Amino acid sequence: MERCIAAFSGRSERIGETCSFDDVYERLSGNGTPLLVIFSSDFDNFSLYSGLFHEKFPDSTVIGMSSDCNYSSEGYSDKGLSALAVYSGIECACGVLHEAGKCPIKYSRSVKEAINKLGIKPTESDRICSLEFTASDEYNEELVLDTFREARGSLKIPLFGSTAAARRGTNRSYVSLNGEVFEDETVFVIIRNLNGRISVISENTYRSTGKYFMATDVDCDSKTVYSFDERPAAAHLASLIGVEVPVVARDISRFPIGRIYDDIIYTATGRSVGKDASIVFGSAVYNYSKAVLLEPDDPNRTAGRFVDKISDIGFEPSFSFAVNCAFDFDIFADTGITGTFTKQIAEKAGIYTGVSGRNEQLGCANISKTMLLAAFE
Amino acid sequence: MIRYNNGIITVNDNCIGCGRCMLVCPSSECNVSVYRGGKRKLAVNSTNCIDCGACISVCSHDAREYADDTERFLADLASGENISVMLSTGFYLTFGKRSRNILGYLRSLGVNKIYDSGYGADIFVWLNARYIKNYEGERQQRPFIMNSCPAVTHYISRYVPQAVNYIIPVRTPPLCTAMYARKYLGDKSKIAYISSCISRKDEFENNSGGVKIDYSITFAHLMKYLEDMDLSFFDSEADLVSDGFGSVISASVGLRDFVASLFSDEEIISSYNGLSYSTRKLMETTGNINVRHPTISIITACKNGCVSSGGSGITLENNYEIYLSELQRLRALTMKKKHEYSSYWEIYRSLSEKFAELDPADFIYEPQDRFVQQHSVPGPVINQIFGTMNMNTEASRHIDCRACGYNTCYEMAEAVAKGYARISDCSRYVSEEYKRRVYYDDMTGMLSSTGFHSEGGMLLHTHPEKKYVICALNINSIKTINDLYNFGIGSQVINYIAHTLEGMFRESGICARLGGNNFVLCFEKTESNLNKLYGINSFDCSRFGVNMPVTARFGLCEVSGSPDLQRITNYASLAMDRNTVKARNSFMWYDDKMRETIMIESSITSQMNAAMNNNEFVMYLQPQYNHSTGRLVGAETLCRWIKKDGSIISPGVFIPIFEKNGFIKKLDFFMWESAFRQIKKWVDSGIKPVPISVNISRMSLVDDEIVNVIGGFKEKYDIDTSLLHFEITESAYMDDQRSLIERITKIRDMGFMIAMDDFGSGYSSLNTLKDIPIDILKLDMGFLRGGTNTDKGTNIIGSVIRMAHSLGLVTVAEGVEKVEQADMLQSLGCDIIQGFLYARPMPLADYDELLIKSESEVVNIESSKSYVDISKFYDGNSPETKMFDNFIGPAAVFEYAENKLSVIRMNDAFVSMLGYAGVTPVEFVGTFQSHVSDKDRAVVKDTIQRAINGEDGAVCIFGYNRNDGKKILVRSKIWYMDIEAERAVLYVVSDDVTDVLGYKDK
Questions:
Q1: Which of A93, B41, B197, B979 has its CA 20 to 30 A from that of B932?
Q2: Which of B36, B45, B159, B373 to mutate to test the interface with A (most CBs of A within 10 A)?
Q3: What ipTM describes this predicted complex?
């Protein structure tokens, strides 16, 4: 029996059709009952696939999210379905955090129960990780991260995940756990790798310009920054970039900033610019915290660095799971390197599947324009 | 988007940001620091506000306001709306006997029914007791928090979600009253609730569970409408009142007493007034299986119960008399009622019987979840903020003084991260930051002036046995660097030099930046330290692209013991100021001589204004003469400072000081007006004056004021402008020449003549002479004073005079002290002589006298003959010789003794005239007799004798046969000069007059 199988179908189909699922199911079904299935699909057929997975694998933990690009070691497409089934060598426990955009902490008990179920010990943090998918139109993933932090207490459980991709032009996105589909929830699975370590790596797709500044007036609740260095936020950003404010307002998502905590850059992307030149970000930007202006890195070089990091993890991955920013995939598509990139990951990370969503989560940080990968020994 | 102040409670402009409100606010994220015009104010983050009104009660600046429905209620009532009124039980406690008048007035406005919510309170308490007594679940799970205070309920639902299910599910007393009125009394009208409670508005609008109360009216706002009215004519009472128990629940422990009366003594009925920190912490334990809950907890947001809420409009202390007497009345009713029953159970049973007809389901409160999870700020962000606030140790992060309004430093840092607070809200940070800013220079990180004096004083005090050097330094050319490159580069240069100095002296002393490009160092006076300092010729700033050597001027002062460091630093700075070398790093020590100079400067400066007011500045005049005629032709006005005690301060002392401190301009104006006034006076008194000149200092020429001032004097005194000349020192022409020429031209256009003073003393150039519109050239006689270049000086003076004449300028030689100089100048063509030779500067009275005499008298300067230093004619390099050789016509100097004539010198012109080119003086004497007839020799001999006998310039004409055979007539003028070794020295000036007189005519 194979330990894991990745399956992919890039068929473009009408809502309600199951051809992609059939392709994937055919690939996954001959290997026994999987312990865990991680899947992603386009928005339109997500609910259908979620139900079908649960129907076909009722005893498995099946977790998934709507994704802009579905990719795996088998291929990639912005349509269809991609999945990874793990059949052995892991233990997992899952749960749901409701009201993800408002107060997931009220449901922190489900995280605690999952931790208790696995009986996680403080000494095994290198073979435990928590994967979460969040669907919410509130852009409050920080609350989910706070909930995990509160729930895990002193245990070190590496966390990574993604905010599900929304249907184009809307904020609606889907996640699912064991057949149930949610729109304002976080679904999570805590995984113990019985065969060895788990390593999580990350790579920013934007690089520092060396132009530093500081947020000096923020409303953390609405993730709005009113001023950088005591100047209206958009005006200051525009002057650093060397463009006019309307350019920043029009293309705010092209001008992410890097928040710097402990000398690590965490990317935050703006969502909108207000008439008062304030900027609403997709991630929290805190007052008096250092930030740096970012600029797009060469996609080839970024992808290369990411693959190099996979090579450097120090073990041969038996399977992996990748999280990517939808924006990055747009750039890769524009540059024509998506195929090469997904193949290079397969060469280094083994069998894998990946999702691309709106934001990424890593540890305590809600970030964007970042590539993540968890490799399982 | 309005970020703040968009809820029920708002802040107005009275706020000064004192933060008192924060200390009583149960929510740490409700009050937000905002800065307007650099001043801290607080705003209400309405999302997090529970509208308890505690801030209003404590604000002593009337900065907090709140919204209620009083205005709408009165307007609707006036428009005929059918409205019933419910009264809070605090109404009677607040207004006492006036209550009936107010109710009467409301009735007069058309109010329908009036309900005392004490009745609803009876229902409320009974239902709570009923709920507890009938509860069948686990004791620990049993709700125990009474839903009596809307602010508390709001707080729990917003901030303590785990306690929401522990609120006893019974509506609040007003809602019970309203439900009773609507359902059981059939009141269909709108209902207004009058109380002192601000948070009722939120309850009625957002948490009423479907029971509609249309208006929340506060005592304070209602009484604003009624305060000027005489309500004594009105009288009414409520249509529905409590039997007694519910009437006192607004008083501090009224509700607890009532509840307790329904339970046995074993049951714990706890009561907490005010949402204090400890009460809030206690609430957070709700649901904890290890914490035993009381039977019932009554929590009110207001510390003295509902009667003292923020909307009461009057403090309990100020209304105590009414409150106490009304409380006494109501408690008497309650006690009377209570005494009708023998036990708590009977009271409960009687209430059960009384309300038997009520359906408890009508009064059920459904807890509302208003919880919003707060962001927790990541640790690294908190660390960053603490770092910004210089709170880098654990101890410093747990000061928890609460001065900022937050309970802990951590809470404050979190609020800062979220944008609710500013780091400047921390008084410790502000005070340390203030100290840091005062002690340290922001740009370089070095000590500031204050820091230097503090640290330096300490250093000197600690080591009184050592000698130290205070060294002030100023970086040269920073302005040039800023102009040529930019201010950023200028700052980098300053930083670089700062760090270079610190690198040199950090171990052995201290360094500070005083501001701009000024620094000060204090280090031990050792050879090694001084060598370090002297060792730097310049600062290499090429790394910043500044390729010129950057240098500094250093002033040093030795110090030992514990002197006044500020004073010593000033001394070093003074030494630095006097150090003008900029080509390389240059060093000047402060010494006693410098100190003396400074003292004099300081003394002069301190006296000058008083001196001007006391007329201590006096005009002196130094006459000018035509040396040829001996006539007075003019005078230069000079200023003298004669103090009241008669002592005189030399202009050589005070003028440079005035030029430095700017007082010279004032003195100029004074002297000009004095001159104008004096000329006018002379003319008016019939004295015919000669022109006088006044000086214009360099500083007076820097702007156009001079033109206005002189123009003003001209208009005021209306003098003949030819009588006044203005002298401008030649150094002034080094400044902005274009503007200077414009100003001088304007003065000249007024009719005044302009003299260039001190020509030849410094910076003159031929261009200057060409370009500047002047009329008179005053020559500086320094050319001829001392040194070895006097011969050249003479040549130059001759050339300058000729050049001046060619330009049409009058020449004046000043500083002429000896007649020889005057003679020489005259021989060179100089027009006017000024100097001690003729007259020293004199007071006005003396000059007046001189002026009067000058019309009839000619000054006779003693002939130069008796003064000539003959030896100079023996010296081929002396000025006299040079003058003799080059600037006069044929001349010779002879010795005459025992009828023998021998030549000392003869100039080329003389030799040439007699056709003796190439003949030595000895040869000349040997041949002279053969060229002159005996008769003519006798004439010459006679003339010589006349000259020796005193005739000034004895003249003779004689024939002379030149070697080339040409016969000429020579006219000689002979002066007796001196006796040298018993031989008469004669000075002979000759000319060839053959063509004038004709040889035949002789």
A1: B979
A2: B373
A3: 0.89
